[in-house]
Every structure is written in structure tokens, then in C-alpha cells.
Amino acid sequence: MSDISSEYKGKATMEKITSLAKRRGFVFQSSEIYGGQRGAWDYGPLGIELKNRIAASWWKEMTQLNDDIVGLDASILMHPRVWEASGHVENFTDPLVDCKKCKSRFRDDMIPEENLKEKKCPDCGGELTDPRNFNLMFKTHIGPAEDTASVVYLRPETAQGIYVNYKNIIQSNRMKIPFGIAQIGKAFRNEIVTKNFIFRTCEFEQMEMQYFVKPGEDEKWFDKWRERRWAYYERLGVKIDHLRWHQHPIDKRAHYAKDAYDIEYLFPMGWSELEGVHNRSDYDLGRHTEYSGKDMQYIDQDDNNARYIPYIIETSAGLTRNVLMILCDAYDEEQVDDELRTVLRFHPTLAPITVAVLPLMKKDGLAELANDIRQELKDDFSTDYDQAGAIGRRYRRQDEAGTPFCVTVDYESKDDHSVTLRFRDSMEQVRVKRTELAERLRKEIKEYKRIK
Ligand code: ATP
């Protein structure tokens, strides 16, 4: 099977993205010197900045811009009964088939129907075993005794930490329905097949928001949250023809879902899930009532103290999967003179470096002047300084890192106190007064529109 979907017209391939990510310090293979660890990746200097900015943008969208959403950071290790109540112990399984000949492993819903019917390995043609269910939760033990009483799981989703704290948050923060709780954190799944770089990994991060509503109002809020999540990606400047909705057919929905849609992105390997928006009904809080024996009902003071178990609308996005999406979406190549220019067209609020300051020459006081200007900008912007090599080369290096603005300090700068501001996308250059530089950058960031 090809890793490039026939529908895909973008310039990125998974190979190019993986190689650029390593070369420029976005993402490295975990434990590379030991041959790598399957399903785990390390975020390098530019990668952690990009990941943090995506997380900050989501956090702002959820908590700062919505008065009715508050944040939470719950623990990864939780009481094992949580995962019985949530249905994960029983249902969080993937059907696994093995090839008896080449020993490859597959999720049976990921191999062609034909092969499944004939029990034929898609890789080598060998015989496949019958599918058997395999639980995706990582199990470990807490304390010195490795017995059944000490079992704990690494959380496979962040959502449950929110449900078990819902009453705490109502009480401590006087939240009234409808309201939401947002959380960003690590999740772990023992995925049978991990491929496509950081798309599907065993250790990853999620950005989840659970919105608690009155039963009967769930469908209205479900539609609202679908609209809001779509608008968010639009505002980030993600290519709109690379986004689409996919509704889960009833027979494929998770056990808890009343309705479920995915926002899919057209990755190089094809349309794949980026984020899920789910109407989880009253399943979760109902189950936690049953398993914990605690009353999870909400007392609605705005409705004659009516008691009910709220319905939950969930928006669940992968943070690390968003990093891959943003890298693929930003990746571009274009012919400039006789050269191929590789450029990452990040939105300036997401770019790991916002502005690079470059002295035209190291000598004659230009390096010192450029350094001074960098110091001035440091407090408000993420900056870089580069004095090595020809100026054209330095621009290319910043293009490849996705730096939207370069400031060049030349001989004239010494006399007229102005600098050249160069734009990554258009490669246009304008002269700006040093005293007006920070303000101009702020304006450019606020008004940024992707041109390609
Ligand atoms: P799939 O069916 O592809 O295994 P899922 O439908 O089980 O995924 P959810 O449980 O809805 O996924 O998870 C919510 C989001 O978390 C996904 O949209 C995705 O962005 C992210 N995510 C889930 N599993 C992984 C993983 N193994 N690696 C990276 N991100 C993941």
C-alpha cells in the first residue's frame, strides 16, 4: 500500500516531514542510539516550542475566550475502578490478527476485506490467525507487590480525570450548567500498529474539553461545539480543503456515544481523524454513580432544584497529532531562481521562532547592533540570532524552521536607525524604523493571512 493518498496534492510526504523534523530539531526518535523505541518520540528544541504553542492556542480558545470553561490537570494514575466504570477494562480493545509466516501484526479493521476473508497476510501472503481482542491499556503495578490488588493503568484518555472531578469543580468554582472543563495531558495506548511518524503512537498528548449540559439541550450544544471546533482550525489558517467531517455510523460508534463526528485532515497518507466531537450522553457520570456509589446528579437552581445527571459533549483532539497536522499543512516547496526553497508556513502565533535577527556582516559593529536589537525584542517575542554564512543561506534556514519574520541589520542601520524586515511567505522586504519594529511585528502577527 502506498503512503501517499491519490487525493493528496500537498507537497509534504511523510518521509520529507520526518527527515525535516529530525534535521531541524522538531522531533527525534525515542532512544535512537539504542535502535529506537516503537510508538515513542522526543520533541526537540523547535518541536517543543511548536507543541507548546499549539497547546497554548487551544488553551486560550477554551479557557480564556470562554467564561464558562475552566481548566484541570488530573493525574495519569487513577483508581483502577475508574477504568471499570468507564468501560475501558471491558471494551477498550482492538481486534488483533497475526501472520503465522512473517509474524506481522495487524488491527483487523485496518487490512483489506479480501485478505481478511481469505485469511491472507497483506504483506507476505501467509496465513492469518483468527482475530482476538487485545486491550490497549498499559497495565502496571503500584507499590512493591505485583498482585491483582496493586494493578494500575496508564490513562488511555484524559477525559476520565475530568469526570471524577466534576463535583469538586462545581463546588470549588461555583460552576453552573452549562459549563466545561478543559485539560491537556499525556495518554497511553498499547497500539498494535504504530506508523506514520507521530500520527499514532503509544505515548501521546490529548487536548480534551468536556462540556456538561442539561439533558434535552445536548443536541443543540453538540452542534454548537462542532461549529466552534471547525471555526478554530479555520482561524489557525489550516487549508480548508484539507478538512472534512466524518460522522460515525451507528454500528461503529463507541459504546457511550449518542452521536459522534470526527474532524478529518487530509494527511499525505489520506483522510484521517484529527479530533473527535462526541455526544457522550449521561453514560460517564451515570457509570461513575454506579461504580463509586457517589451521587453525581446536578441540582439545577435555575430550574426549581431539578436533579439530573448531565449529558456531556466532548471535543477530543490529539495534541501530538495536531503537531503532525500543522507540520504537513505548513510544508511547502517552491522554485526560487535555481533553487528549491523549503518553507514551513506556520501561523506566526504557532511558529517556534517568531523573529530572527541577522547582521549582514559580523564585523564593523553590525553583530553588536543586531544583538542589541534582539535583546530589545526578546521580552515580547521568541527570537533567534544567526550570523553564520551568506545572508541568503540564513534566510533559507529560517524559512525551513518556519520563522515568519527576519530582521536584517546592515551598514545603513548604523546611520538611519532602521532595519530590513523580511517576510517569510512573500519574501518581500521593507524598511522599518528600529523604534517602530516591535509594534510593526505585533500588527503583522495580528493581521496575518496565509497567502499560499
Ligand atoms: P482511532 O480509532 O484512530 O484509534 P480513536 O477514535 O480511538 O482513534 P479517540 O479515542 O477519539 O481516538 O481519541 C481522541 C483523539 O486523540 C484522536 O482524535 C487523536 O487526535 C488522538 N489520539 C488517539 N489515539 C492516538 C494515538 N495512538 N496517537 C496519537 N494521537 C492519538
Brief synopsis:
The chain starts with 13 loop residues before the first helix and ends in a 6-residue tail after the last helix.
Model description:
The protein is an alpha+beta fold. 31% of the residues lie in helices and 27% in strands. It contains 14 helices and 23 strands. A seven-stranded mixed beta sheet has the order 3-9-10-16-13-12-11, with helices on both faces. The chain has a five-stranded mixed beta sheet with strand order 20-19-21-22-23, sandwiched between helices. A three-stranded antiparallel beta sheet has the order 5-4-6. The model has no long low-confidence stretch (mean pLDDT 95). Adenosine-5'-triphosphate is lined by residues 157, 189, 191, 200-201, 204, 206, 273-276, 316-318, 320-321.
Please describe the structure with a list of short key phrases separated by commas or semicolons.
single chain, 452 residues, alpha+beta, 7-stranded mixed sheet, 5-stranded mixed sheet, 14 helices, globular, binds adenosine-5'-triphosphate
Please give the largest β-sheet: 7 strands, mixed
3D shape: globular
Instruction: Round the Cα radius of gyration to an integer and report it.
Output: 25 Å
Low-confidence runs (pLDDT<50, min 5 residues)?
Answer: none
Small molecules (ligands, ions, cofactors) in the structure: adenosine-5'-triphosphate
Gap from first CA to last CA: 30 Å
Question: Could you outline the blueprint of secondary structure elements for this entry?
Answer:
Blueprint: H1 14-23, E1 27-29, E2 41-43, H2 45-64, E3 69-71, H3 80-85, H4 88-91, E4 93-98, E5 105-107, H5 113-118, E6 132-135, E7 139-141, E8 151-153, H6 159-163, H7 166-173, E9 179-188, E10 203-213, H8 218-235, E11 243-247, E12 259-267, E13 270-279, H9 283-292, E14 298-300, E15 306-308, E16 311-318, H10 319-330, E17 331-336, E18 339-344, E19 355-359, H11 366-378, E20 383-385, H12 391-401, E21 405-409, H13 411-416, E22 418-423, E23 429-433, H14 437-446
Parallel strand pairs: 3-9, 19-20, 19-21
Antiparallel strand pairs: 1-2, 4-5, 4-6, 7-8, 9-10, 10-16, 11-12, 12-13, 13-16, 14-15, 17-18, 21-22, 22-23
This protein binds adenosine-5'-triphosphate (ATP).
